[in-house]
Amino acid sequence: MKPSTGTKVLWAELLPHEFKQRQEACPVVYLPLGLCEPHGQVSAFGLDTIKAEWLCEEAARREGGIVAPSMGYHIHEAGYHARWLEEEVGEENPHMTGIPPAVMLHLFLYQLRAFANAGFSTIVVVSGHSGGNQLDLRLAAEQFMKRVPVQVWVRSDPELVEGLYEGDHAGS
Ligand SMILES: [Zn+2]
């Protein structure tokens, strides 16, 4: 997390009265998701997180709302990702911050709970890491919404520009 310039939108930077003011004006919280993983020789390991943070911070600056602390650990070494790792990265150390799906989804549900408890009515989740795990997150969000009266909206960044741009993700 780097300090913001101009309007403060990061939950971690807001004072209590600033938080309440922003939340009252717009009860939306954004959760940027990403991880560190190999993105070739010209991209930083944290590309996925950096993209998600930028989208969330810009949205909050333009439309209101508060950006929650980023989640820089994500699903990778399982399912289709595992095959991608084997084919694209091979035996080399991938230097990544992958966590198991069960841990990720459990933590995700508790993040949603924290946002509902903090008084937000809409939760916008933007994942800079994609390829299918956004579907798992949506399933978890659907279950959460059956029990808690909040709106949870989950998208990966390529889904935001579907039909306009193919995306930058390695191998996809
Ligand atoms: Zn990724």
From TrEMBL:
Keyword ATP-binding in record: no
Molecular function as annotated in GO: hydrolase activity, acting on carbon-nitrogen (but not peptide) bonds, in linear amides; metal ion binding
SUPFAM superfamilies membership: Creatininase
Keyword vocabulary terms for this entry: Hydrolase, Metal-binding, Zinc
Biological process terms in GO annotation: riboflavin biosynthetic process
Cofactor section: Zn(2+)
Family that this chain belongs to: Belongs to the creatininase superfamily.
Protein name: Creatininase family protein
